[in-house]
Amino acid sequence: VAAGPPPLPCPPNCPPPPPPPPIDLKFFGVATAANGTRQACLLQGDNVYLASAGDVVLRRYRVITVDAKSIQVEDMQNNNKQTLPLLSN
User: Fold this and answer.
1) Is 0.70 topped by the overall pTM?
2) Backbone CA torsion sign across 26, 58, 67, 22
3) What's phi and psi for 23, nearest 5 deg?
4) 59-86 core/surface letters (b: 16 or more CB in 10 A; e: else)
5) Residue partners of 29: CB distance under 8 A and separation at least 6
6) Is the pLDDT of residue 2 over 60?
7) Beta-carbon count within 10 A of 42 CB
């Protein structure tokens, strides 16, 4: 397979690449399953999802960690990890 030409170097005033889009989920609570697994309560629009660490939501977002005050989520399409804080009332 032939490789294309190498990318051109960016000039000194080259703008940085755009940031990845924000993760379209809201973290609003934690539930503990019968087996002791902590689950995040997630909201997207009117849809509610329960997800534990390792679960994939909407075939796009992988839950990495679930803590009492925040969760870490990876957007698998953009290889982008974000921490979502617990929403306050």
Assistant:
1) yes
2) negative
3) -70, 130
4) eebbbeebeeeebebbbeeeeeebebeb
5) 40, 41, 86
6) no
7) 24
CB 72 within 8 A of CB 29: no
Average pLDDT on 48-73 reads 96
CA 87 – CA 56 distance, rounded (Å): 21
Residue 16: pLDDT band by 50, 70, 90 thresholds?
Answer: confident
8 A C-beta contact, residue 71 and residue 83: yes
Token code pair at residue 43: 């909201």
Strand order of the sheet with strand 61-66?
56-57, 61-66, 70-75, 80-85
- What one-letter code names the amino acid at 84? L
**Residues 6 or more apart in contact with residue 65 via CB below 8 angstroms:** 53, 71, 72
